[in-house]
Amino acid sequence: MAGAVHCAPVFAQSTQQAATDDSQTDSTSSEGQEIVVTGRAGNDERKKVDTSYAISTITQQDLQMRAPIGLANALKQVPGFYVTSTSGEISNGLRVRGIPSDGYQTVALLEDGIPIQADPGLGWLNGDQSLRLDQTVERIEVVRGGPSSIFYSNAPGAAINFITRRGTDHVEGELRYEGANYNSHRLDGWLSGPIGSSDWRFLAGGYYRLSDGQHHVGYKLDKGGQFRVNVSRDFDHGSVMFGVKRIDEKVGNWRGGVYTTDADGDVVSVPGFDDRRDAIAGPDTRYFDFLTPDGPYRFDASTNATVRLTQLTFDANYDLSDRFKVEERARYRTSWTRRNEVTLYNVAKASDLLTSLYGNAVNADAGQSLGLFYRNTGTEFGYANQNGNGLALVDLARSHTVPLDEFITDTRVTGNLDALGHHDLALGFYFANVNEEYNVNSAAILTDVTDNASVLDAYLLDAEGNKIYQFTDNGVAQYGAEFANSSGESDTIAVYASDEWQLTPKLRLDAGIRWEQIRTTGQVEGRETVDLDQSPTAADDSVAVGNGIFTPFSRKFDHTSWTVGANYQFQPDWGLFLRYTDAFRLPSISSFITNAGADPVVQTMNFLEGGIKFSRPTFDFYLTGFRSIYNSYEIDDYREEADGTLEPFRVFGDTRTWGTELEATWRPVDWFDLHGSWTWQDARFSSFVFTNSDGVLTDYSHHKLNGVPANIFRLTPGFNLFDRKLRLQADVNYNGDLYTDVANDIRLPSYWTLDIDASYNVTPRLQLNLIVENVTNTFGLVNGNPRAGTIDNSEAGQAIFIGSSLAARSFRGAITYRF
After folding, report:
1. Where is the composition biased (Low complexity) (predicted)?
2. Is the Cβ–Cβ distance between 455 and 519 less than 8 Å?
3. Whole-angstrom Cα distance, residue 783 to residue 704?
4. Does the pTM of the predicted model rise above 0.85?
5. Nearest alpha carbon to residue 47 among 430, 429, 476, 575
């Protein structure tokens, strides 16, 4: 591999020059001529059009124009990807080529060629919680399939490489302020240059922001930022870099809204609640004192997703000879993450919800009934049409804490030799040590359904309507609805090799192999349900707590991945490729963190892909067909136990997806360009048999995969005006309909959205930006309610249901000064 981060010479233009030229990259240069550094063997440069796998590049221009908030938003333009970003900036989902795994389980998230998190699919610690986008990121390279599973761990679907800036020969930098219509203020900046008169260079930069968020809850959702600094030096026969990054920030995490359908059958918000802007969370649901055997646990929803992360990075390479060099990348990371949130769990007409929760306690013969009252005012809930909807919610006030320490090293020898043709070679060794803790405490609470909902208390009433018993404790229906206390450690080792064999000037054969092993150890505290007897209410009568008995786990897994591919380059700008890959994902600490007795399996996959590539200065065209087979796909779901607590369980199935990816750019004239991407996929379960909670065996084989739309489309026309000082572009997006459950009972309809971006270079140093998202204020539903069941969803056929939709139209403006 040509050094996943050793790319500065390729992009060694000055920042001031970039200010003039970079904003028009799409209209003046051919994408296929970009030098690829991710997923490569050998030291020779390779252009995008020459690769035997699908790769997309998100340029600095793209990042500057769209200023994506969060990883998911940045990756929306990548064909083959389906991303959901309705949770906000973090804790979102990404599915690659029909692979239905949640979060980022099947992709490697890299920063300068080394993982930012050894396993980006940890429970309650998605990789996007450990990564922030700012102006220190130079570009993003995305390798789909192919060599990603050879060079990187946990990457059968893709490798996503965030390539950051390095120090420059002259002092230069950038300062950017961005404001938004939802009271968001953000300051980005970076500075680089030489250290005195030495050969060392430095880069320092980051951001700080304050924001109410697009779903305002009455307190600051986003606060904090990121800072990084690196020093680097080039030698006659190599280079070295030391880097430090710190994230200290809390980020909002929207947990969905409440929906119904109108007379035409279209999904809409329920009366009194606008899901594009409103949030159930608010000042009244911010604080709770959870009752526990060890005393009260203070819950504060404004903690949001708090991340405190320190990352140390070392990157070096040395030329062993004219043909071979050794590369070493190492990263140590320590972090503490807590996610406090109010998550919607169950919604119904208030009277029906009360009956389902407490109906067994009513003596109808004595004239007793149930009553619902506002906690703070004592006012009785108006059942018929309170808030215009008469609905009540069971929410989960959840607190998940995940401390994580890990060390990763990747040592690689790359080079080339001539023997029956030309070979670009790589041989590497990978090691990762991970230590994780996992702690959960939550409570079920009652609220109404309105913006910044109010907390409710439930009572038993006598025949005269007097309160004779209180079921809830200051709005808490049940303490200890969830509990976990566990810790684990894993050691992963891998060896891998790759050869890109140029048989003739036109024909190249590529092959790679990776063997990987993981050893996991740890312990999980057992759980019991107790009556705390700390409250006169029923809220603490059945509380899940630790029993003090820790069950150890110790398991080892290993597997081998391999790939073979061929590339035939008819002309420098025209070629074909074909590739087969056998890949896997090993179990990890997360497989045992809630169940020491779990029996996970190695999830195996195989992929077939082939494509046509064409790249000329006025036109780029990449068409890839693929087939993805995923064996032993693991679905994590929940069952509600008889005591009301939630018990996780796992089910396995096999899937098969056929699909195509198309990515093209047309530049007919200097002032206009058109970029498009389209993904079509037929994704289904090839085998899925499930026994539900009633003991009924159901065969869902051949059902469509949940969470995978058949069609995803984006078209981006762009205009360069006024001597190329003004850039205008629009993203026309289409997301096809999809099912949210394996049973295919809940279908989310398709939708179109429009985003508009503009940049204007006032001077070569001063730039203005405008970003308008969801211009048409589209109401797009993208998620259902996973807490109602991923397999058989209990909300199927219901008139009222929980889900997540797009945020309302938003405006962001930025001013950037480069020097």
Report:
1. 13-30
2. no
3. 16
4. yes
5. 575
As a whole number of angstroms, the distance between CA 47 and CA 617 comes to 14
Q: Which tokens sit at 534?
A: 């700390």
Per-residue pLDDT band at 273 (split at 50, 70, 90): very high
* Of 804, 778, 738, the residue nearest 88 (C-alpha): 804
Please work out, in degrees rounded to the nearest 5, the angle formed at the alpha carbon of residue 299 by the alpha carbons of 185 and 539: 145
Could you give the 3-state DSSP secondary structure of residue 98? coil
Tokens of 399: 């607190």
Q: Could you tell me which of 214, 342, 351, 208 has the C-alpha nearest to residue 288?
A: 342
Q: 638: burial class by Cβ within 10 Å (0-12, 13-18, 19+)?
A: middle
Tens of pLDDT, residue by residue over 461-499, are 999 999 999 999 999 999 999 999 999 999 999 999 999
DSSP classification of residue 356: H
What's the confidence (pLDDT) of residue 200? 97
Burial category of 383 from C-beta neighbours within 10 Å (exposed 0-12, middle 13-18, buried 19 and up): middle
User: According to the model, what pLDDT value does residue 20 have?
Assistant: 36
Choose among 337, 297, 299, 306: nearest CA to 124: 337
**Six-digit token string for 787:** 């807490």
- Residue that has been written with the tokens 């035939």 in this structure: 568
Burial label, 321 (beta-carbon count in 10 A; 0-12, 13-18, 19+): exposed
- DSSP string of 105-173, one letter each residue: TTEEEEETTEESSS-TEETTEEGGGG----TTEEEEEEEESTTHHHHSTT-SSEEEEEEEP---SS-EE
Calculate the alpha carbon distances from 578 to 507, 573, 581 in Å.
Answer: 12, 17, 10
Shortest CA distance to 351 belongs to which of 309, 377, 389?
A: 389
